[in-house]
Amino acid sequence: MKKLLVMVAALSLIVAGxxxxxxxxxxxxxxxxxxxxxxxxxxxxVVAVTTxxxxxxxxxxxxxxxxxxxxxxxxxxxxxxxxxxxxxLDELARDISAGKGETLSTVAELxxxxxxxxxxxxxxLQANFHQIFPSxxxxxxxxxxxxxxxxxxx
Amino acid sequence: MRRRGARPFFFFPLLLLLLLPSPAQPGNDGYLAELKGEASxxxxxxxxxxxxxxxxxxxxxxxxSLVDDPKFFLSPGGKRDPGAELSATLDAMFDDSMxxxxxxxxxxxxxxxxxxxxxxPARMPGPDxxxxxxxxxxxxxxxxxxxxxxxxxxxxxxxxxxxxxxxNSAYESPLLSYAVNYAATINPKDSGIAYAFKGIFGFYPxxxxxxxxxxxxxxxxxxxxxxxxxxxxxxxxxxxxxxxxHIIEMQGVYMDYYFLDENCSYDLLFLLEAARPSVTLxxxxxxxFVAPIETLRSVLAAGLIDNVVFRASTARRIRHKAxxxxxxxxxxxxxxxxxxxxxxxxxxxxxxxxxxxxVLDLAADFTHYLYLKKEIPxxxxxxxxxxxxxxxxxxxxxxxxxxPLPVPAPPESxxxxxxxxxxxxxxxxxxxxxxxxxxxxxxxxxxxEGFNDGSQIVFSEAAVRWYPxxxxxxxxxxxxxDIVSLAPRDAFFRPVSWKVQTGFxxxxxxxxxxxxxxxxxxxxxxxxxxxxxxxAYFLVETDLAVSGRFxxxxxxxxxxxxxxxRQVSDRWGVLARARYVYGVLGxxxxxxxxTGSLKFPFRLSRNRSLxxxxxxxxxxxxxxxxxxxxxxxxx
Lengths: 154, 635
Hints:
By secondary structure, chain A is mainly alpha-helical. Chain A is built from 8 helices and 1 strand. Chains A and B meet through helix 1, helix 2, strand 1, helix 3 and helix 4 of A and helix 7, strand 5, helix 8, strand 6 and helix 9 of B.
């Protein structure tokens, strides 16, 4: 009997899971992927937090994929960088504006900026914040391309 | 202990039979038979590592796997028959008609058999596993950390915490590593109560998942206000690789999830055993409740941890910055976040650059937080956030590091969660002795180190009392559940405080009569950190009491309570409370009561404490007080 219930639950989850997956949030600032619990009632959320449950499908999210948004120019063939910048755009914007932070240093590492050049890299990006993030709807491709070109300037 | 009886399921074996491999190709028959012979000669099915990989645990009549998903087993009887599973696994490794090939689907089993039986890869069918190689390359596991997420500020039950693993890559930045989580996948259509029931009784399937660590940081630290403790293990690269193979093997395989024992924390221990089978972790936990902190303790005790790094939640960082900034700057930051003030005005103000940077950082963090909590819509957020950041970028350079954020005591420094108490006291002029026990977890009077301040969760605490001269010992109270969440409000965060308590308690009735009543007492309100009082709170409460001693057998009362909870030093604290409720239904006369109490908890050592307390109750024709001293031992 329990087995059957689990099967039914699993089946309904597949349906529910695909419904969640359909909620594409687009590109640009504020497209951070939301936790599924955000759509739940407060009570369910409290219980979920309590017992560490998750809604929808538990995935093996090795690669989140970046295909639905515009791609950076050919110079940047660094899938890991693209993926990270897309998934952390808001945090990266904050770090660049302040000239420091973990997200920014992760980008520096992905771009192979030597440890000794990191301070200069950070300042350069901070000084060019307006160019890197010109508008609220800015896409990650522009961000990556501009970071690369700005950091290559003398 | 395990509650699941025999449940023969009929159609899975049939289904599996259809999928079972066709006989291995002729050339390998001899070699396969040779390997099987050696495996059975060496009784590999009884090898500890086979138990670890297949989740076998002793059960009535042999061993049984904790995995409930039939597709995890290559033999129809694999769940209960380690030998048949081993034999079927060897068969499958030599079967190149399977898709995906068994050696790609179950790489940890394959690697172990290959190594143990010294299998010659040249004599096996050899499709490569490109997908597996890609996955391993992406994860690039070099070392591993055990991550402990502390409790959610306003969900006391979550203060059990949560644990997951992080497979550290060759990258310096931990954000580029992957997190391995085990969790119940719950039905979003269920109500909270159905959810709790199903979670506890194993109706939800539990799955392992892999997600980028930055996603977990966002989920816990940014959105849920939970701090993360990153315990770096000393597992070697080879051990971590084995663990990664095992995790890949568990992809999409479910185990029934039991909130109390077969939960997130317990099932992670299997992964650590797969990495280093010489440590035994899963056998240490035999109680009915396995708390994440207990699994963390056993991993620490097994000597697997090298060091720990603290990652403060966004809320903690915002609070710390706010303390640095002072009220005036906080007010500006808040008006920036609410959109009332344009960021450019902050830049133009005659403030030192350090103040500007601080105000704008604070405003940006808070705006982002509000958006993550869906308190501001996306279109408003985008422009506001970018405006604040653009202004921030004009304030050159990072501000000089001010006072670093204070790191709280790590979770393992807290007291153990079971508690036994002995008390002596005087109630209404009569001396008494009392003994109490609770299996879990933490109360406001317990030493706070390692726990969330202002959170209490008590499960099933029972106390018996004996008055000299009495013939017998009497049940004084039995708290089934007693939860309190005092979440202080501040300039940025406005949580609600609440409590819910239910159980049996002894009440005084007119004429020196005492009687056990059933109580249900929920409440909600607010609390603040008020220096020097500590956490000050008030709660609106309802109080339902059921007993034959009441007219109509019950009394429903409403009222409120106010109090303070203060940690004076790491040694002692003060808890003071006044509560008044007024009868509204049932026995309205007896429903009315006033109670005042004062407690001084004193920490003797990590697992010993004393509490000195006094209380007084006023009800119609009842005027009684209690004074007592209690000795608590945690184990």
